[in-house]
Write a structure and sequence with these properties.
Alpha-Beta Plaits, about 140 residues, 4-stranded antiparallel sheet, binds adenosine-3',5'-cyclic-monophosphate, alpha+beta, 4 strands, 7 helices
Amino acid sequence: MDKTVILIKPDAVKKKVIGEIISRFEKAGFILVGAKFVKLSDKLLDEWYAHHKEKPFFPGLKKFMTETPVMAMLWEGKDVVVRVRALCGPTDSTKAGKGTIRGDFGTDIQQNAIHASEDEAAAKREADLIFLPQEI
Ligand code: CMP
């Protein structure tokens, strides 16, 4: 079965909407197969966002992602990667429609409430980075 990794980011943690966001995935019929509330290390963030390393927003992104622990989760379901990204809405919260997670809970392009794996290869890579085998 397909899997995807979701991080509920510090802006959403501070807004106290972890439960509401999880509820959207449960209502969509996906199965939660791993979860932990965890402070991301500098090393993990360097690996997680390696493809953004040269971008001007990279230092600010790392600082934002360590403002609080994040709610890291692994979800399972048919076509879960694509369907979860549709529920999230586009990266820029200001362009995300009402009813999407970023449209309802995000603030801007950086503080966008949630991270969801881009494709199945990213989901596998991210799951291996953040979860120990016995946590899934
Ligand atoms: P995410 O889906 O976690 O993938 C990379 C993250 O970088 C993205 O969500 C945003 O939080 C952040 N991001 C992407 N583009 C920008 C940008 N132009 N300025 C600031 N942050 C960005």
